[in-house]
Design a protein that fits this description.
With about 260 residues, the protein is of the alpha/beta class. The protein folds into 2 domains: about 55 residues, Winged helix-like DNA-binding domain superfamily/Winged helix DNA-binding domain (Arc Repressor Mutant, subunit A); about 190 residues, Rossmann fold (3-Layer(aba) Sandwich), CATH 3.40.50. It is built from 10 helices and 15 strands. A 7-stranded parallel beta sheet has the order 6-5-4-9-12-14-15, with helices on both faces. α5 crosses α6 and α6 runs parallel beside α7. The protein is elongated and about 70 Å long.
């Protein structure tokens, strides 16, 4: 097989699977590790794939590109629901918790209506709306003010000031991407600032991130991986990523999506 034919076949595989490992390609095409790495380098230079540790993924959006809430809400729905269900088991009556903006945190909000004596701090309009749809007299929802972003987050100095004056037991943080090099990231600079304030207000940090967030990098780092007390993700996360993440976060929780 000619190099160009092999590179086309590799690209087809990545498009089908979303990502591949070098070892898989070496076995499939019967060539050396170095040959595969050169093929991936060619594809990466053409902007068709993103090279990651041990393999490659389909080229993603730019680090400052921010999809809207509606666009993100239809992605990995089963995985996000499973992650949210596991996160909900951590919430106990009488707690004060914070939920950042994000589609997975919004899914979590829909599962909290029966938790008694709960106080929820959020900068997310969809999270607040989900809680207001099922109002309870023994629940308090604190929605910060601020500048609205494409992900329906409220950001800026007003939001940061409101959050900085509070203390919560748990923060459930949604992220755009995670990587060993860049940590937890977002494509929105203002949102990064608010998320850092949320982390500062929380006793424990629980990050909710489906497997597609691995090696996705936004323009702004929120926190390093080791800042997370718990990271909840799904079985789609590659084995190599599980090892890397498991060595840095306090606890790695893997859930099965229905």
């Amino acid at each position: 097989m000619l190099a160009q034919q092999r590179q086309t076949a590799i690209l087809d595989l990545i498009r089908q699977r979303g990502g591949v490992r070098v070892s898989q390609l070496v076995s499939r095409f019967g060539v050396s590790d170095m040959t595969i790495r050169r093929d991936l380098e060619v594809l990466a230079e053409r902007g068709l794939v993103d090279k990651v540790h041990g393999g490659a993924t389909l080229a993603g959006p730019g680090s400052a590109e921010e999809p809207g809430f509606a666009a993100k809400s239809i992605r990995q729905q089963a995985e996000k629901r499973a992650i949210a269900e596991r996160a909900a088991t951590m919430v106990e009556p009488g707690m004060a918790i914070a939920l950042s903006a994000g589609t997975t945190t919004a899914a979590l909000a829909t599962l909290l209506s029966d938790v008694r004596g709960l106080t929820v701090v959020t900068n997310s309009i969809p999270v607040a709306d989900a809680l207001y749809q099922n109002p309870r007299a023994d629940q308090t929802v604190v929605l910060t003010g601020g500048i609205r972003t494409p992900s329906d987050a409220l950001t800026g100095p007003v939001a940061e000031a409101a959050i900085s004056a509070l203390n919560v037991d748990l923060l459930f943080l949604g992220v755009h991407g995670l990587s060993p090099r860049t940590g937890f990231t977002t494509p929105n600079l203002l949102e990064a600032g608010v998320n850092r304030c949320l982390i500062g207000a929380a006793r424990r940090l629980v990050v909710l991130a489906d497997h597609t967030k691995w090696e996705t990098i936004g323009i702004a780092t929120i926190a390093p991986l080791e800042a997370a007390d718990v990271l909840i993700t799904d079985v789609g996360l590659p084995a190599e990523a599980r090892t890397t993440i498991g060595e840095q976060v306090g606890e790695l929780v893997i859930v099965n999506a229905a």
